[in-house]
Protein 1
Amino acid sequence: MIRIAALVIAIAVATAAVAQIAGNLLLSPAPMAARIGTARAAAPPPAQVAPVAAKHAPALPLALKRETTVTGPIVRIGDLVENAGTVANVPIFRAPDLGQTGSVPAARVLEALRPHHIASLETGGLDEVKVTRASRLVTASEIEGRVLRAFAGKSGLPDSRSLAINLDTEISATHVEPNAELGVARFAYDQRTHRFDATFDLPGSPARQPTLRVTGTLVETAEAVVPLRVLAQGEVIKAADVRIERRPKSDAIAIEEVLGFAAKRPLRPGQVIQATDVMKPELVARNETVTISFEAPGMVLSVRGQALESGAKGDVINVLNVQSKRTIQATVSGPGRVTVTAGSPRLAANTNTSHPGQGTE
């Protein structure tokens, strides 16, 4: 009986010990691994275990990056650490403002990584990591173009090619998220005053949605001719002297009404040429010696004369016939040349050519 009792007690003690070991394995992963390793050492020959161990590739070394570019308002572990693995998407810092670059001390990065059980991180002797927030720069010209597209074809306005914008204040370039487009939040236009008021959404931080307000005046434009250099009074305008620009619609004239004409007054570069600024080029100057051509059917006679007036082609001016000392009117036909055309001879209509006393048959 005594031996049987002792045997029962021994079995109970052994059972309790096994239960305690099993409880430690479930609550503590590290002892479990150690004990599994010990069990493998006493397992069958290594040739049977080697194929299982070969499935696990060695972990890539963790290394701190020298610099990084992030998209969005958050910096994640993978942005700062090479080969971060499963914790790469864990956020740890706030990113700089759009388009800006900031630096994070390496010691602060290590401190932020500590709760995530990242060990043996290679810093490579770096003192800091530079972080740049990716962005797209929106220029003033892009904003102006967006305003024109918002109003073109509406409220009686022409298309954007025939519109110009005068801003109340200068627009500064601004940063938005990469690939983001300006969204029109609100716009208004007064047809009477031609004034507009537009507000745009600037894609940025999701916590706050910044806006940009633009005000000014819309102006209808047309093609205009402007000089490229100073044109003196009387100078004949050539194609190389001018160019065509879109300007506020006014009394501007077409290029055909400018080329070959003369400047009526000095014209400055960039000044819109209007109808009152040009004239036909003067081909004959006052007191200039000219050639007077008398033209009649089958006959042309040329004599020397003196212009008493200046004139352009087609103008009728007074000319002194030097030979006869008579003043006549002639038409300017070319440089230093005027023309007098004789009228057709007038014939008496229904003239009776029969002799007196003769009748007609």
Note: The chain has six helices and 23 strands.
Protein 2
Amino acid sequence: MKAQRESQKENTRPRTKSRPASDGNTALDVAGAGVRRNRDQKGGKRELRFRDLVEPALESKKELLKNEESSIHTDRMRLRRILPALGHLQLRALTAGRIARFLQDLARGDESHPALKGASINRYHSLLSSIFRYAVRQELTDVNPLGAGSVPRSKESAIHVRFLGHDEQRRLVAVIRKDCPAKILELELAILTGMRRSEQFNSRWQDWHEGILDVTGKTGPRAVRLSKAARRCLTRLRKRAPREQVFITPERNAGPLDRRLWFEKAVKKADLRPAFRYHDCRHTFCSRLVLAGVPLLEVQQLAGHRSFQTTLRYAHLSPDHLKSAVEKVEF
């Protein structure tokens, strides 16, 4: 009888709905777990702390927005400054004023860190805003404290465009031919096409058709137009590549990590001053187009600049062409 009563009591207990199984590894699972934990403690999602947003937001950037690994790595480097100052704070404490004071601290610097310039501070501004935008999309918070210009961006200094002079190119090529001759074609392709390094590094042989190379970079997919010289360069790279090679850059076939020590060593040995970075090959491409009289609008299209403001950085290189252009107007 006692066993029968226990069985009846068990059957009358209310049953809870089962939750679908989750491996707990997705961005939403991580964020949701943080929200539920804080609700259990304080009864509201406002108790979520900034540090709880970071990993889900980065995961979203990588999986949904398809940001490059190098971009995520840079975000993590900046978070080393952000998290000690803001990570422990509850979201309700992260007002526009609090974040503005943090950015001001970056501008001033301290005993451990040098003062940052406007461009660098704006990268921190963008990272913080992107994390809050993710939180708003997931309804983890109601507002982005950096939205609608509530925290003004810093004034940036004029960008100095560094491009390779012909004498500098001869010195650099001489060093590479001696120390790592297989890399000459990579440098040549970079200058002839103006591709971003990530675009060049991740481009595949199957993406090359006729005079176009389809690439994907930080601004998304685009078609890179190839000159005759660029096509000859690719043909030579193709002839020496193994049949099974997928990516145009040999190292990319071994793994996703892009090491450019060969280039950095060659630049140092060639004594290029000021320092010349791989991205400056792209500046060299754009600068040579402008110096050859190519209109800025066409430079924007060939370089794949999202904004015309970016292309205007090269406008100062064409005063002679503007002078000859204005002479064509007659009365």
Note: The beta strands are 208-209, 212-217, 220-225.
Protein 3
Amino acid sequence: MTRNVSIAMVRKIRAPIRAVYDAWTEPRLIAKWLAPGDDSVTSVTTDLRRGGRYRIEGEHVEGRAYSISGTYLELSPERRIAMSWTYDGPVASLKGDASTLIAEFRALDANSTELTLTHEKQQSREGAEITRVSWSSCITKLENVAGEAQCKHTGEAQAPRDFFSEGQRQIQDQRETRQLADRLEAVLVHDKLGAADAAFIARQNMFFIATTDAYGQPNCSYKGGKRGFVSVIDENTIAFPHYDGNGMHLSLGNIRETSKVGLLFVDFERQARLRVLGRAHAADGDALLAQYPGAQFIIRVTVESVFSNCPRYVHKMRLIEESVFVPAENAETPAPEWKTLNAVADVLPDKDKHLAGTGTDLNKTLNRD
């Protein structure tokens, strides 16, 4: 096998350099061109920073699934993108160690861009030839997609993004509820927190948060604290503390990878609920940390959509007491019993080494027995 085969090509794209760069970095645009021939992209996730991960999932024309994933090695806006590239799919000659893709951009004039593409460290000449043909096909599509991106920068009218996805629309049409959905969106959904929303959030001592990782895998987590522990900073921002957990950091990790979050607040006493969709950022140096004893991070959410739901299936329950494990000022926070399990005794972080024990009943420590 011949290793480290490289391919290179130079193409003139009839679109401004900014539009071409957008086509390489915006997931919705990537999905429209980064698949050769009649292949199709089904999912794109990106973390646009040096060291950030990306993943592209797709289907070959005959229906066989594949994925391309890697790490951004360099991101110089409107100049250069370098990334590792690993194919996982049914085409054997494309599989193997990660290759390196470099895209360089040079403005020829206000409405055209020179793209120099280099794909290095191909595993075989056969794989390199398939890659060369595939890139030629993709770049043909790229020019049309860059033209679409150009519209955004030249002020041409674009159709507003539908609140509902295509799959949701299909079900609405099947159940004949599209008009009802549109009406409820118009009545209930808004992009800023109103006074009633802020007051509702301030009364809550728990919520559920949904996140997704770079591969599209969703995760749902419960977050609890003292009543009012979620702060409404302004009509566009809410913030809440991240306390000590089990060390898996599923939500925090997902926020770092994709930033997308969905929060569900439920008031079981009043049988009411509120959803907040947006993008989140976690920081361990946030000024709000001083307001939350025991917090490790502050997570700020930039609000994109806020809306209430019908309360009819919310069970009516009353609070007996708030958790004694929520950190409080001038009070020692008790340790969770699961940290005394023998199964984790040798891997506890230094601050918890003194808790190591010999317990064996996992279900008991999780209140499941």
Note: The CA atoms of residues 345 and 356 lie 5 Å apart.
Protein 4
Amino acid sequence: MSDLYVHHRAMAAPLAWASLAEQLVERRECLESYGIRLYGVWRSQIGRPRDELNVLTVVESPDAAQAVSEVLRASGALRALEHQTMRPTLRPADGTPPTRQGNYAWRFFETPPENWETFLNLCIEAWPGFEDAYDSQIIGLWRLEPASNADSYGNIRSLLMTRRPDLAMWERSKLPQGEAEAEVRAKLSRRYDLCDSTEVHTSTLLTAVDAEDTARWT
């Protein structure tokens, strides 16, 4: 799992998020010539501005992120852009992108270094039961760069992406039914308690191949 990922947060001009995404996808082959694979493009659902895109790429070097910036800026629809590099931990095992539509949760954690290994072990223990119970998938858990991977308090910063079929399953997954689900929730709750901070927003996948999201979320 040596791939380097880049999370790009792109703010489009008002109501231009779709056209900005389309232009990025159309330039996929151009990006590949720079050693960049497009992992996915997501639109805002809950918790982020309407015209913001979240883009993940797999790159050969941190410098490659600049090529994505150039493609986005060339469209004329971009208003602001920021990015951060990160490396996979337990998942993903490779750069195969997600393709199924659904409710994608982006949860950021700030974890004290002394709690990190326990945090990872709880993920390993909880994920199989979580996926089986809720028709959901853990897309990835990335540790944010730079090399220090730390916030101003010395914490390890990470991004967890999960996919659920829809928002109804999001709510369902927070309300365990039965002993097995309660055990999964207890492990996930323990993981949250190991962190100094966590925040989440949700999105849907513009590069999905099975279904298009046409809802007006924000």
Note: The mean pLDDT is 93.
